[in-house]
Amino acid sequence: MIPVLIVLACLAVAWISAVVALQIWCRWNPRTDALHFAATGDGWEPALHEIRPVPDAPAGPRPVILCHGILMSRHCWLPREGVPSVADSLRRRGYSLWVLELRGSGASRTSRADRWDYGFRDYADFDLMAAVEEVKRRTGAPRVDWVAHSLGGMVAYAYLSRHGAGSLHKVVTLGSPVRLGGHIMGLPRLPFVDAALRTMRSVDLSILTRAVAPLLIPAWLPWVELFMNARRVPRRSSLGAFCWGVQRTATRMIRDLHEWYRAGEPFLPRVARTEAPYAHPPGGILALHGRRDRLATPANVGTLTQWFPRALVEAADQPGGRGFGHLDLLAGPPEVERVAERIDRFLRET
Hints:
With 350 residues, the protein is an alpha/beta fold. Helices cover 37% and strands 14% of the residues. Helix 2 (86-92) links the parallel strand 4 (64-67) and strand 5 (97-101). It is globular.
């Protein structure tokens, strides 16, 4: 019995050591040039991580705010040494980048007593506007561009439908769904979710993702395929996303999304304050999708033109390629350079 306990204790120590080492590596590997905060007026200060452009590159036309998806943080965007990424490519192309962490994520901070009392609409009504104004103040630019993944694109759509374009000049979304629902996204409906959301103030999946991170080194877990095309993404990128990318978030915000998921209908009519078609930013909207993305399928993203008729909806994949999943639209496979090139062309178009 004692030898078995010794073996189990050694395995536990090795596992914990691996988890801690991976968290340290993923936490400190990416670097940004400066950290700023944007005041929302309702007690929150979303974090803005500045990434300055390569000095000799031709300057981008406007500052670019990069926004993450649901349960994520800056780590899904931050360039890692040796890993191709959209953010690193845009930096090398001369863009001033500002990686936004929405309320509740990453380094964002608050003076409110209840940190987890916010919903989806608060992102559009407060965080986006505050981030835009802070970037304008620090750069002197009259307008900014918004490049966002998944939920970050939904936030932009909601903002446009509630407030108009404001100081947004162009909007680019990567894998941002327009409709939620199990029958649309190919996901099962879990009966216990309703009860769980009623009892919790916040949802924290980071404990799970960090605990299983060592399993991503020797082999892929089946559920990873839901988030990325695992055969294309280097371990270096995926470990960063799963160890430090996944964040705790408010249950009230998750309840908003779950309500739309159960209804299986477009979310925009539920949040809009104006009538469709909604206001386009002056420079337009570009919505990119991946053929292997199960969370924002091409058909789902394609329905965007019902609400924004002039939006450009395009595949990010190369013809005949292996196809992008959800997270690898941002970093991992060498083909993300093509995604960055398309974003660059769109942002520079007059």
